[in-house]
Structure formats: structure tokens, C-alpha cells
Amino acid sequence: MTSAPTHDWPGVAASLSQAMKPLRGGAPDAMAAFSALARAALEPNALPTKTKELIALGISVATRCDGCIAFHAEAAARHGASREEIMETMGMAIYMGAGPSVMYAAQALEAFDQFTAKAPTKSA
What structural domains and CATH numbers belong to the chain? Predict the structure, then answer.
């Protein structure tokens, strides 16, 4: 028996993307710098982008950031993460973030499942 989703994660990501538009316009230099930082951090070097997105998703859980969960679950799915990789990442997030991370890990798994159900994946 499956339970009802707690969030519409694709909807969360879309809504936050819309909400960030005025921020990009109102603080263009800071947002451009943040975008450049994100691109540099996600560039595949010693670690592939998929691994970096799994790390980001784990940190999203440990820091309890719903919006971060939405964006990084979507990116992990897009970069070809498997459900098993998500589960191991959630294990690490729970280990590092304790009890509250269990609640957010459940949400991150739900988000990943929703994104993989709707979109094709790309290899890391």
C-alpha cells in the first residue's frame, strides 16, 4: 500500500523557479555569482556531476531545505542516479543529520520518485 505524496515536488521546483525570477532581477550581481558558483561546483572533475548532485541532495536533507530537495532530486534523476544510489545517500544524510533527517529523507525519496516517473535520465 502506497501513501499519498506529501508534496508535489515537480510543482515545488516550478513554483520556486518562478519565485526566484524577481530575486534574479533585483539582485542580478549576487544571483549571477551564485549561478557561476553552482556551475563551477557541479563541473565534473574528480567527481562526476551525478555524484555531486547526490551529495547536494544529502546536504539538502541534513539542512532540512525543501526547495533544495526539489532541485537536487530533479538533478539527480536527470543525471541518471538510481533509486539505490538515492537510498545510500539518504542513509548518509540520516547518519549526519539524525532524527529530523529521517523525515526529510522520506521527502527526498518521494521527490526523486516523482521526478523519475516524469522525465528521461542522462548519464553522469
Answer: 48-118 (1.20.1290.10)
